[in-house]
Amino acid sequence: MTTATIPAQPSFLKKNLVLGITPAFLLVIVIMAISFGVHMVNIESIGDANSYYTAAVEAMLKSWSNFFFVAAEPGGSVTVDKPPLGLWIEAIFAYFLGVSGFSVSLPNILAGIFSIPLLYSMVKKYAGELAGLIAAFVMAFTPVFVATNRNNTMDGMLVFFLLMAAWAFIKATEDGKLRWLLLGGFIVGLGFNIKMMQAFLPLPAFYALYFFGSKEGWLRKIFNLGIATVLLLAVSFSWAVVVDLTPADSRPYIGSSDNNTVMGLIFGHNGVSRLGNTGLGGNGGPQNGTPPTAPQTDQSTNQAAQPQQNLRQGPPQEALDACSTSSQGDACSFTTQNGNTVDGSCITPQNLDVLACAPQGMSQQNGQAPMGNAQMPNDNVNNQGPPQAALDACSTSTQGDACSFTLQNGNTINGSCVTPPNSSELACAPQGMNPQQNGQGPAGGPGGNGGTPFSQETGTPGIFRFFTNPLSKQMSWLLPFALISVVLALFAGKIRLPLESAVHKALVIWGGWLLTCVVFFSMVSGIFHSYYAIMLAPALGAMVGIGFAQLWSWGRDKKWIGAVLIGASLITLAFQLFASYQYGEQSWWMLLAVILFAVGTLSMVVVKRAAYLSLLASMLVIPIYWTMMTVSSNVDKNLPTAYTGGNQQQVGLASPRPQDDGGPNSNVNSEMLAYLQANTQDVKYLAAVPSSQQGSTWVIQTGRPVLYMGGFGGQDDVVSAEDLAEMVANGELRYVLYGDNRGNKEDIANWLASSCSVVSEFSNQQNGQNQVQGPGGGGPGNQSNTLYMCK
């Protein structure tokens, strides 16, 4: 069955140049080439990419068992918290190219490039060449699309698989053949094995297209969809069933699960925890679990003193981990749970006896760090309270509201409204550095406020989530026009069932995909990282292309259509300027967008087609600029994100992470690493560490097994004290790095105190007599982690 596309398409796009090659085809090739070039700009800045996944790829290449179970470290103690397919593909690339941030990100880059012709062909089928070209171009220059593809988080790969599934569902709708429907379900099942339930987001649109668009009988369509669903679920859960049927002692611990099963991971951390703030941690346990007590010992020089408890009331755990093996004053860097990179130096926060990484300009004053009173960098440095701008930003807000203000040096700070200690007024505290008062923990979990995890990264739930800071920078630049296009598509013709209008079919699949994701991500209050917004990029591009092509076609006979395009362009451009202002971007280049809009508006009566193109170009200027700034400004980010604005929004983002002897973009204590390497050649594990956050870089640099005792974030029950004792007795383990972590593992703390001794040069003493001689050296130690030798 054939479906007519939107009429009145530009004829030159269809002209046969040679061997069936058309100008539209050549333009797709050009878009692909440009997109590949954009992806390669400043590619070295990605460093190790997401070190958790990069270390997992290193581990997977060590054995077939590690490969199948997607072990997080070479010893095979624990798995990553994702299904296997995406990491399998990354491991294959790394096998041939070597393990590096680039090699493990390359599959996602290529997936993004080849998504372009795929999207073009599908949009072209229902809306013509013009719509297909615009759709491909818009997707290629959506900031989050490029940022996420340049990372080894597997979302870019997932989008490519879902586009292949969309092609199969369109084919099933037009041909009425069951095999295409089954192929679509099979591919969605493969997508599930990349990012689990995230792959199901566009499924309602896929099913709706077939159900309302296919010419087959209604009962036959229901039956066929039932068969396809069975196949989809079988493929989706195939790996999970095999793993869960494997005895627990014959496989790694399932990371971030609450019961050591993949099913628990699917419906827990990667399921319910994504929907709402249920109290289930992002790392397999409670978000606000009580930190453990470190080993209780005497005050001898070879034993560790008890570190400060309840550290969750002070600096974020990432700030503590960044200085766990460093010395006072050392340069440091960490990535907050919202994906922002913070550069600074190691200091001793007020009322704590451990080091933490404080942002640049927030170093301690008078022997105390200002982390507890939300002092801002380079602003009011002589004032022990927040700057006036931080107070003004929350003058009309309530506790936990998102906020933003500009410092006297021009930098824009994003954060949340909190009540600083010894103050009765709300103040805007920087992202990830919210001070706690009266012993209260963070409001809303990691990186969050107001009960919403990661709200500093994705904002608070609501209908304006995609239109306001901090989420709007990811992919929302053309969202107003896309939503207007959804409305316009309803008037493409009379709605008949089964659907006959090509535009209505396009509306069902692309508008359905877009609206499903917009509504879901606007309302979800659970784990939601900003780079998940890449899920909207194909549907966004498709609806922009379809809407513009529809206005182009209508404009041939209806003069007033030009006014509709002007209005839609004005709304979209006004939003873009508003969003740019939110992110502190007020540059001369914005004038180009305004000039193009003015030219298009004024020439509408004289040269209509040129006016249309000018208006389209006016809406593309800012997204293109933002995408280019995304690849040129952001450096070495564990969690990808779009360009954060001219003032860089987060402290220290403008410069790369500090480097030391441990390698590029590393905070590794090279002396400790060299010590461990020299003294563990006869044992399996380099060391045991609290979590992947201390061990992943060691795995990347050495290729050695590093036991993640608490999995990704320290909360998994990967091993017990008895397990460690047995490993030591069997000659598999000799050294344990232990201290402040996110789990509640007092049995391990007590075992270390009774059975192991502190390595004096890497010890943690409250009096500062023993110190870690990390890069830069000097200064009191007060480390939060201590190296133990166990025999």
Characterise this structure.
Strand 5 and strand 6 form a beta hairpin. This protein is mainly alpha-helical and 791 residues long. 45% of the residues lie in helices and 7% in strands. The protein contains 25 helices and eleven strands. The strands form four sheets. It has a three-stranded antiparallel sheet with strand order 1-2-3. About 15% of the residues have low confidence. Helix 1 crosses helix 5, helix 2 packs across helix 4 and helix 5 runs antiparallel to helix 6.
- Amino- and carboxy-terminal Cα gap: 74 Å
The helical percent reads 40-55%
Structural class: mainly alpha
For the sheet with most strands, the description reads: 3 strands, antiparallel
* Mean pLDDT across every amino acid position: 81
Low-confidence stretches: 279-313, 361-384, 432-450, 649-666, 765-783
Order of the strands making up the biggest sheet: 1-2-3
Structure annotation, total helices: 25
Morphology: globular
Gyration radius from CA atoms, angstroms: 27 Å
List keywords for this structure.
single chain; 791 residues; mainly alpha; 3-stranded antiparallel sheet; 11 strands; 45% helix; 7% strand
Write the layout of secondary structure elements.
Blueprint: H1 23-40, H2 51-60, H3 64-69, H4 85-97, H5 101-140, H6 143-149, H7 155-175, H8 178-195, H9 203-213, H10 218-245, H11 262-275, H12 317-322, E1 331-335, E2 341-347, E3 356-359, H13 388-393, E4 402-406, E5 412-418, E6 427-430, H14 455-458, H15 472-475, H16 479-489, H17 502-523, H18 537-554, H19 561-582, H20 590-602, H21 608-633, H22 670-679, E7 687-689, H23 692-702, E8 706-708, H24 721-729, E9 735-739, H25 746-755, E10 756-758, E11 785-790
Parallel strand pairs: 7-8
Antiparallel strand pairs: 1-2, 2-3, 4-5, 5-6, 9-11, 10-11
Helix pairs in contact: 1-5, 2-4, 2-23, 4-5, 5-6, 5-7, 5-17, 5-18, 6-21, 7-8, 7-9, 8-10, 9-17, 16-18, 16-19, 17-18, 18-19, 19-20, 19-21, 20-21, 24-25
